[in-house]
Amino acid sequence: MIAETTLPLTLAVPIVGSLLIWLAKSRPNLREGVTLVTALILFGLVLTILVPVIDGARPSVKLVEIYPGFDLTFTVEPLGASFATIASFLWIITSLYSIGYMRGHHEAYQTRFYAFFALALASTMGIALAGNMLTLFIFYEALSISTYPLVTHSGTPEAKRAGRVYLGILLGTSIGLQLLAVGITWVTAGTLDFTEGGILSGKASDGLVVLLMALYLFGIGKAAVMPFHRWLPAAMVAPTPVSALLHAVAVVKAGVFTVLKVVIYIFGLDLLTTTGASLWLAYVAGATIIIASLVAMTKDNLKARLAYSTVSQLSYIVLGAMLATSTGVLGGAMHIAMHAFGKITLFFCAGAILVAAHKTEISEMHGLGRKMPFTFAAFFLGSLSIIGLPPMGGAWSKWEIALGAAESGQAILVGVLMVSSLLNVAYLIPVAVRGFLPAGGAGNPDSGERWEIREAPLFCVVPLCFTAVASLVLFFYADDLYAFLQPIGGGG
Amino acid sequence: MAFAGLYNYWIVVVLMMIGFYVVIAQGNLVKKIFGLNIFQVSVFVLYITMSKVDGGTAPILDDRYQVYSNPLPHVLILTAIVVGVATMALGLALVVRIREAYGTIEEEEIEQQEGELP
Amino acid sequence: MISAHLPALQVVVPLLAAPVCLLLRNRHAAWLLAALVTWATFIIALGLLAQVADRGTISYAIGDWAPPWGIEYRVDLFGALVLVIVSGIGSLVMPFARINVEREIPAERIYLFYVMYLLCLTGLLGIAITGDAFNLFVFLEISSLSSYVLISLGHDRRALTAALRYLIMGTLGATFYVIGIGLLYMVTGTLNMADLAQRVPDLLHLRTVEAALAFLIVGISLKLALFPLHLWLPNAYAFAPTTVTIFLAATATKVSVYVIIRIIYTVYGGAPIFREGILNEALMGLGMLSMVAAGLVAIYQSNVKRLLAYSSVSQIGYMVLGLSFGSVIGLAAGIVHLFNHAIMKAALFMALGCATQQVRAVSFDDLAGLGRQMPVTMGALVVGALSLIGLPLTVGFVTKWYLIQAALQDGAWLAVIVILASGLFAVVYTWRIVEAAYFRPLPEDREEVREAPLGMLIPLVILAGACVVFGIGATWPMDLALAAAESLIGARP
Q1: Nearest alpha-carbon partner for C287 in C174, C412, C396, C162
Q2: Residues 108..137 of A with a Cβ closer than 8 Å to C: which?
Q3: How far apart are CA C488 and CA C396, in angstroms?
Q4: Between residues A444 and A259, which one has the greater pLDDT?
Q5: Which of B85-99, C22-36, C50-64 has the largest mean confidence?
């Protein structure tokens, strides 16, 4: 029963927090205190929901009837609960990190930043806990809008252009394709509730299922499947904490989370397997994985490289979902968690390097690892997790996805996954290695020339070490996560 | 003969088209307003014509007459005439103001002047 | 006792107040009277809505002349909703007007402004309440003539040409309407709409009845500014005094939509004419053209008021599209969009009005950086913009959701695509405004701009709030619209 009462609060708390942040705008310490307290409360609330879900409960709350026959409904199931937990947990870490980053980097408009950040988290909670597709769609759009001011934060022409791309693609795909898909689903199935086993089977013709699946996948622009991936690299003009939380966790994961939700609870795995509606989309995802990895190798800007790496990694999850097998879906769901910890570490490191050494280009980072040993060590661990090497969390999820591909007899896709892992090695490892290699000539750390470069502020370094260690720990606790998520693959 | 029997309606159509043509084709704003008025008048004629009953008289109660024309359209058209006059007055008043503001009442010249503005 | 006479009071009160205003000759007294009267009409309209919801359609015989001989005032659910929209917007505009009009209209003419405003209100309310087709024409002309005057009060000289153009187009439209009514009268011998509804559907095969429909639709489409008959609208809205723009944009075209729905669904009995003729294809096509063409043109406007005016034309397309499906859900979407668009467009124009009040002009350059200096105004502008795009949690989404459903049910795929595309156009043109307000630096030579006075801000916040409140809790307007649509369509199975 506790979960039913705390469910609406998970939305209310960040919204109230956002208001309080706004009110405390003239007092930075209080403002950031409010942010942290809000994040902590939110995480506590999410835990109260998580516990009963582990025990197999499915708490559900109807908030208000918004249109005749439509309720704003929240229902928690393992997938949503895990997403909500990850997002709210990483918000705490990111809040700490942002304090260090925003102050260390002397960013302007910090109040707006924290306030919209809290709103974005509220929208993410709404997506994670949504009980029907309309509720999810509503918060999906709310997330796009609330993150727009974060992307254009600096207000430079470049940021404005990026903001236009960001909003243009996200709104364009969601209004143009996803809304249409939701409408068709409603007219065909007569309901939009997330139901185990799907709501479309027996109601939609095969052709319609194929069309709908495509509309959903491309309509969920946040999943960044090519050709609708351009917003993600564009959004990297945002301050690093934004890139870290929103574009490694909240926004992009909201996208793939929606894809998984749709596959599992709207279509149902059986329907997709029998119609084969999603298989060709798995190849689209495979192509995205390879192309994005190749593009990432050409990028010298660290954040841009990480952005394309994200595009590629997201398609792992999409690929897992599109296989529409129990293993594939589970692997995808696990990868949401694993990639979140790995990628947020990498972004934190990129931000720390920017704050401490004012460097953004990889080619300038020779020898930097000696001055920032913790940062670069964390970067190395994060890279390993993204690549999927043991003993990092990413190993398990990639293994599951590959297993899913093999089970469905898609040898080509298995090959794609292998090639992509090699590409990951090729574009991530050099960054860490270059940091630790001695720099030639004047940049030599022993020459005493750049002694002023030290580690970034404590607020920056501690969080990134923490997330790096966390992705290591996840390797050992992957079984628990697997067991927790098991029910979502039950239909397959 | 059908044509002659519908004589009034032909007048309505001709008047209507003349009025409509003047509104569209004339560049002079005063002429436009008058065209509009002719257009409206044609409708008055339409209403009056439809109320006429063959062999009927004016609608005055009297034992000698059994058949009389329908009075309602006349009343309606009285209202419409009032509206027409008001429209024309307002239209002409606007034309006066336009002449004060632009120094001309030729549509082309006005558009030329407006084109120069941002 | 008095509640039985609400239908008459609804029109008579503002009608009588207009000449009193003229006699007062004092602008403050005139405002006070106009405001009190407008608020009274709003209360009356709410009372009527409650009565109708409670007891069903009200019929009121003016002067106790029983219909169909006398003029009947007839209030059904749909009519009551329109009355509430018109008088509600009017009420919100009044406090805004007091401050705004002082700036935009010479002091000695202000009392005349209120006279015309009251007459316009009378006309619009009358159209929505009357049950007599010819009486409707009279009210139509009362509202039109007064709105020509109101538009011509704009300080730019182009307001004069805009008003004259509107006068010509509007008069043509009204005259077409009279011709249509005349033809119907010729065949049926009645002007009462309920009476017409009994007789017309059996006479649909007559050429005269068909011609009448053509005249009626074209005539009203002119008043409605349906593409391609919209040419009068952009300039009229752009150069009229801001208060007038807000009021007309939110009410005048809505009332015209009301008339077209009345004609098609009440007088002509709805579905049968859709099945036989090309009317629904024509309306659907024109509605979609409106949405696309006006949306595209809006993108290229440099004057923000004109941009919003074109967006109005585009939004009118939504309503016409909704009613052209001939299904309950489509009609309900159209009706609810009357309500939704009224509040969102009023909010947008009012936010713009607040900005112009302080900055004096309305190009994109003038809006630069206002997001920081006028946070409330620009916040409301953003809410209005989001509604126009049709994002969830705003009223715009409600309409879009039901329109798409109606289109899907009808299998009208082209319509679905157009609805979605026009939402995307809205993203482009509204976001230009938002970007200018928030992400352009302040011009160097601009002195400090203060937030607009409270009298303007409060109605603005109410409107913007309504955009969100009725977007989240859309059950009330939507239930009303569905019930209204059902009674309109079900009137004659």
Answers
A1: C412
A2: 134, 137
A3: 23
A4: A259
A5: B85-99
Interface probe for A, chosen from C425, C442, C472, C482 (most Cβ of A below 10 Å), is C472
Mean pLDDT of C135-162: 90
Q: Do C420 and A155 touch (CB under 8 A)?
A: no
In degrees, rounded to 5, the angle at the alpha carbon of residue C269 between the alpha carbons of residues C267 and C272 is: 140
Under an 8 A CB cutoff, do C474 and A183 touch? no
Are the beta carbons of C148 and B94 separated by less than 8 Å?
yes
Query: Is domain B2-116 classified as CATH 1.10.287.3510?
Result: yes
Closest-CA distance of chain C to residue B61, Å:
18
Chains B vs A: touching, with 3+ CB pairs under 8 Å? Answer: no
Whether the CA torsion A197, A198, A204, A205 is positive or negative: it is negative
Domain ranges of chain B: 2-116
Residue carrying the six token digits 């890279």:
A383
A377 pLDDT exceeds 90?
A: no
Q: HSE-up of A92 (CA within 13 Å, CB side)?
A: 15
Full-model pTM: 0.87
User: Which subunits sit against C, judged by 3+ Cβ pairs under 8 A?
Assistant: A, B
Rounded to whole angstroms, the Cα distance separating A180 from C420 reads 8
Three-state secondary structure of C322-365: HHHCCCHHHHHHHHHHHHHHHHHHHHHHHHHHHHHHHHCCCEHH
3-state secondary structure of A1: coil
C168 lies within 8 A of chain B by CB: yes
Neighbouring-strand partners of residue C130: C73
Banded model confidence at residue A475, pLDDT cuts 50, 70, 90: confident
C361 touches chain B (CB under 8 A): no
Amino acid letter at C418?
A: V
Record: contact B94-C163, CB cut-off 8 A = yes
Helix, strand, or coil (residue A358): coil
Residue in the structure block whose two tokens are 């040409």: C161
Q: Exposure string (b/e) for B63-98, b if CB count within 10 Å is 16 or more?
A: eeeeeebbebbeebbeebeebbeebbebbeebbebb
Asked if B80's CB is within 8 angstroms of C185's CB, the reply is no
Reported confidence tier of residue A447, pLDDT bands at 50, 70, 90: very low
Q: How far is C340 from chain A (nearest CA, A)?
A: 14
Does chain B reach chain C with at least 3 CB pairs under 8 Å? yes
Is the per-residue pLDDT at A29 higher than 90? no
**pLDDT for position A463:** 85
Would the CB atoms of C172 and B23 count as touching at under 8 Å?
yes
CA dihedral A214, A218, A222, A223 (to 10 degrees): 60
Q: E strands along A306-410, which residues? A: none
Give the number of beta-carbon pairs within 8 Å between A and C: 78
* Residue from A348, C42, A271, C167 nearest B29 by CA: C167
Report chain C residues whose CB lies below 8 A from the CB of A180: 404, 416, 420
| Per-residue pLDDT tens digits for C55-68 | 888 888 887 777 77
CA distance C270 to chain A (A): 24
- pLDDT(A323) > 80: yes
- Beta partners for residue A361, in sequence order: A301
Q: Measured between beta carbons, which residues in chain C are less than 8 angstroms from residue A171?
A: 389, 391, 424, 427
From A355-364, A369-378, C89-98, C362-371, the region with the lowest mean pLDDT: C362-371
CA distances from C207 to A47, C178, C184, C212 (A): 73, 17, 11, 8
Reported ipTM: the value is 0.91
Chain B adjacent subunits, 3+ CB pairs under 8 A: C
Looking up tokens 């799907």, which residue turns up? A198
What tokens appear for A375 in the block? 């940062």
